Amino acid sequence: MTNDQLTFQNPVTRYPKIEPPKQDQPEPGLDADLKPHADHGEDTYRGTGRLEGRKALITGGDSGIGASVAIAFAREGADVAIAYLPSEEEDSQRIADLITKEGKKAVALPTDVSSAQNCRDLVEAAVDELGGLDILVNNAGKQIAQESIEDISDEQFDETFKTNIYAMFWTVKAALTHLQPGSSIINTTSVNAYLPSPTLLDYATTKGAINNFTKGLSQQLASRGIRVNAVAPGPFWTPLQVSDGQPKDKLPKFGTDTPIGRAGQPTELAPAYVFLASSESSYVMGETLNVNGGMPTP
Ligand code: NAD
Ligand code: MG
């Protein structure tokens, strides 16, 4: 591996500045159809045994950020269950194959997390198939850009909240009976929690809620030996962005207004999740780890 995460290199030039062509995919998008393709660490993430024997459930683990986390967790020694929508079978199969190639168990669980019962069933299925659970990554997300609050339908507002924050509540509640001391919950939030994009009013509001939920819950669970943290990505090149997550005219310049000057590739997020999942972060609780190419955060 020449471009792995452990090699000394210039972060500015580690990946090229991409200029994605205008493109549209129905929601949720597929990594398989993303132009240009993103790096999930397939050829670049090097494992060092940091999650040996762990059992992880990752929602939205079929593509983008969740896929890069799934690959990294498997290379660090974990068995991994991924949840995704049924239309994402192609992406999920590719990631499941990569997990299996590491000699780890891959469990594929097509589930719409915008319903409470589905979240409960998801956790039970993951626990059954993995033989337990000690890492929960709440990463599934819905992001539909709209110019004005008047363009956000009541249905969109409701679905965004159900997918992004209600699902987190339902999934954590169901998982708690299975999580032993030493377990880790990691929630994907966003730089939008502090710098809300005017075109992402509903989405950004859920991300603010996720930060708050993470900090409150971490205090509840600290004495039980369960750590809760969040990762806040900046602009990462994933299918979310082309399935109406961004206004189309913004795509060619996606990520270039960051101090680093380029969009992130999903695998550049994986080490943050590995760190928060593993015991090396035993004293880290209620933290939001920002991985955003240098944008200042509170
Ligand atoms: P992505 O499209 O690859 O992943 C999002 C996933 O969410 C999809 O793969 C899908 O499986 C899942 N999902 C959506 N609705 C669902 C539902 N109802 N039920 C079950 N699963 C559902 O895009 P991504 O960018 O990797 O997004 C992952 C997370 O990262 C999201 O929470 C997103 O808000 C967050 N995030 C992304 C960026 C970015 O720039 N890409 C920035 C900040 C935060
Ligand atoms: Mg997907």
Automatic annotation (TrEMBL):
Q: Where is this region: Disordered?
A: 1-49
Q: Which Pfam families match?
A: adh_short_C2
Locate the compositionally biased regions of type Basic and acidic residues.
16-25, 32-49
Task: Print the keywords alphabetically.
Answer: Oxidoreductase
Which GO molecular function entries does the Swiss-Prot or TrEMBL record give? oxidoreductase activity, acting on CH-OH group of donors
* Entry-linked InterPro entries: NAD(P)-bd_dom_sf, Sc_DH/Rdtase_CS, SDR_fam
Keyword Protein transport on entry: no
- Write down the SUPFAM superfamilies for this protein, in alphabetical order: NAD(P)-binding Rossmann-fold domains
Spell out the Polar residues composition-biased ranges: 1-12
Organism domain of life: Bacteria
The entry's family comment says: Belongs to the short-chain dehydrogenases/reductases (SDR) family.
Q: What is this protein called?
A: NAD(P)-dependent dehydrogenase (Short-subunit alcohol dehydrogenase family)
Task: Please name the source species.
Answer: Paramicrobacterium agarici
